[in-house]
Automatic annotation (TrEMBL), chains A, B:
Its cofactor is Mn(2+); Mg(2+). This is 3-isopropylmalate dehydrogenase. GO terms for molecular function: metal ion binding; oxidoreductase activity. Coiled coil: none annotated. SUPFAM superfamilies: Isocitrate/Isopropylmalate dehydrogenase-like. Keywords: Manganese, Metal-binding, NAD, Oxidoreductase. It comes from Marinobacter lutaoensis. The keyword Ribonucleoprotein does not apply.
Length: 384, 384
């Protein structure tokens, strides 16, 4: 028998374990139904709980332990609560979230993919009816940029303090993420053709394309990397004459996400600007409860990619059984599709899970239901 | 006779001169009506036009020429169009917008104030009716941070390129902007009491306050300055026990601006994060056409502050007479109120202009009208 596809399951903190429980139930149903050669191992870290016992969020050899898996399915980490409420801060964010950044970095998960598609039944925050058609993919550079952690604090804590934060951008990481964006744009166009729901985008010289990539920068103020991004974008774009291109400044992009989100297809942004835009995109697709996310390494098959919903651990609603597991389940569906590169049987399981989640949302969206009720309803749909 | 209050009028590019023409008409009406001791001088720079003739956007002694004025009223600069349409780029943004950043820096206009209040008649982009009550003031640190322009490009244009962008934050600039935020929160609470429209905000320990300051950072990823901001915020907050405090990460803040903007009062953010949040806030208050802005130096009375709408020069609609002058007029109203520190008679003129703009919007908002029609309708309201 072939080697099984192995998943490291890390439920994490807060609502993480609650939404993960539903993901595991769905995976169990799919495995039994399709006799999938799929295994998973549950880890009690990274987490606050592990920290309380060991004084650190995870063991020293955590990355080594995880390396042999084909994917990491993560619930949520940390406490995104307010800084001025010490009771809600068991650990400073910087410590409890460090594993997240360490995983992205350690396995060079250089793509963060966050689709924002408003499924039927999901909450619509915008007044304009055309916003029902939101269907974009935000691709966030996930390996460098604003997140390198460089800089420091000189004369810390004194009135003469100077804090610096250094952003570092390389040609190579810029080129690969922009190229990835164009490839995804092509794939999305092909998918739409298959599903007979073609979209068109106009280029500036009047040509009509079936997909678009919008580059985000703030090059009128952050010119050093803004110019690098722009130049690389223009170079790579020449290889994709079938894809329309567009450039938005990050401030204008936030505005246009709210004013006319239906105009976007693929959006490529830096680490921080991508972080900001994906939270906004999550709202456009119905809120954090339904926003999937993944951290991919498309170039090195020997390291696991990581699948985690966009939402955090939401300590304010943890333990109440009311967290929406939809984002976690859509994330799990994306993981199965991704793992099809190892075991093609997983592709259809992934699509099945996506379809079940979408059907559930269409039928019940808007009705308040508990975490477990939603998971159960989706499992029922999956049952043979 | 006392020295007149002197305004440097710089219409700029694109729709700048069009909306400025309406501001000047309103100022003329107000001056005649109240015999205001007010003068203005029009400058053909900074602008593209000046650049075409002289090869630079403004004369070398521009700052010296402007220094003797009490305020600068600016239309709009530059071309925020797409990077990939060379025809629309007369000048690279970095060049045409440089005067804007040079003015903010040259006169140490360290506060950028951008109120976002949804006036009756303005377009409502959000579906939730509670968003009718949006009334926040975003205060952007305007003198340092991400905008210091430091860093560079190593091995430029090669596959080995490394671009760096250095963010610099000082204790002093952090302290003054946070303190300014708390002062504004108090003033807003007092104003609301006067107008019998009190709002309440809860602190984390359950106390009820009449105003709130929300600090924005991304301290879980950009820790060096995030921690500095957080520490200074906590220190300054102790002096304002009557003001509720709150801390949001910039990504979550963008989400909450769309999901529940009515919960915010005063928001304090860094230069870049403030830039992003104010574009979003502009949408919440009805769009760029109605979003005022100002760049203030509250500490040095010998240099002018600068008043410019949040919007850019909008070359795509320039010359058509369809730009909405509302943002420009609200900005002009704010300028008059600000100048009341020099000449108290200007305060009521500022309020009068604000009220006329608000009344016009309430009556005609939603009806498509030209730039001039809107200006004329407002002038009529101002006439004795
Ligand atoms: C928790 C935090 C460090 C993280 C990020 O900024 O990347 C989160 O906001 C995300 O979007 O995954
Ligand atoms: C034009 C640009 C440099 C400017 C900024 O980023 O400050 C603008 O977006 C603004 O908000 O005033």
């Amino acid at each position: 028998m072939a080697h099984p596809t192995r998943i490291a399951v890390t439920p994490g903190d807060g609502i993480g374990p609650e939404v993960m429980a539903e993901a595991i139930r769905c995976l169990e149903v799919l495995r039994a139904k399709h006799r999938l050669n799929l295994e998973w191992t549950r880890f009690p870290w990274p987490s606050h709980a592990w920290h309380q016992e060991h004084g650190v969020c995870w063991p020293q050899d955590a990355l080594d332990q995880l390396r042999e898996f084909d994917a990491i399915l993560l619930g949520a980490l940390g406490d995104p609560g307010p800084a001025d409420d010490p009771e809600r801060y068991l650990l400073p964010d910087s410590e409890s979230l460090a594993p997240l950044l360490a995983l992205r970095k350690g396995f060079d998960q250089w793509v963060c993919e966050r689709p924002a598609r408003l499924l039927k039944g999901a909450r619509q925050y915008l007044a304009d009816d055309r916003a029902r058609d939101v269907d974009m993919l935000v691709i966030r550079e996930n390996s460098e940029g604003e997140y390198v952690g460089q800089g420091g604090r000189l004369r810390k804590g004194t009135p003469d303090e100077v804090a610096t934060q250094v952003e570092v951008f390389t040609y190579r990481a810029t080129e690969r993420i922009i190229r990835y964006g164009f490839e995804q744009a092509r794939l999305r166009a092909e998918d739409r053709v298959r599903q007979s729901r073609t979209r068109t985008f106009q280029t500036h010289d009047g040509r009509v394309c079936e997909s678009q990539v919008c580059l985000i920068t703030k090059r009128n103020a952050l010119g050093h990397w803004g110019d690098l991004y722009t130049e690389v974008f223009e170079t790579v774009a020449r290889e994709y004459p079938d894809v329309a291109t567009h450039h938005e400044l990050v401030d204008a992009a936030c505005m246009k996400f709210v004013q006319s989100p239906w105009r976007f297809d693929v959006v490529v942004a830096s680490n921080l600007q991508g972080d900001i835009l994906t939270d906004l995109a999550a709202v456009l697709s119905g809120g954090m409860g339904v926003a999937p996310s993944c951290n991919l390494n498309p170039t090195d098959p020997t390291v696991p990619s990581m699948f985690e919903p966009t939402h955090g651990s939401a300590p304010d609603i943890a333990g109440q059984g009311i967290a929406d597991p939809t984002a976690m389940l859509l994330t799990t569906a994306r993981m199965l599709e991704w793992l099809a590169r190892k075991d093609p049987a997983l592709a259809s399981a992934g699509r099945e899970l996506f379809d079940a989640v979408a059907a559930d949302l269409e039928q019940h969206g808007g009705t308040p239901r508990g975490t477990h009720d939603i998971g159960e309803a989706i499992c029922k749909r999956l049952q043979p």
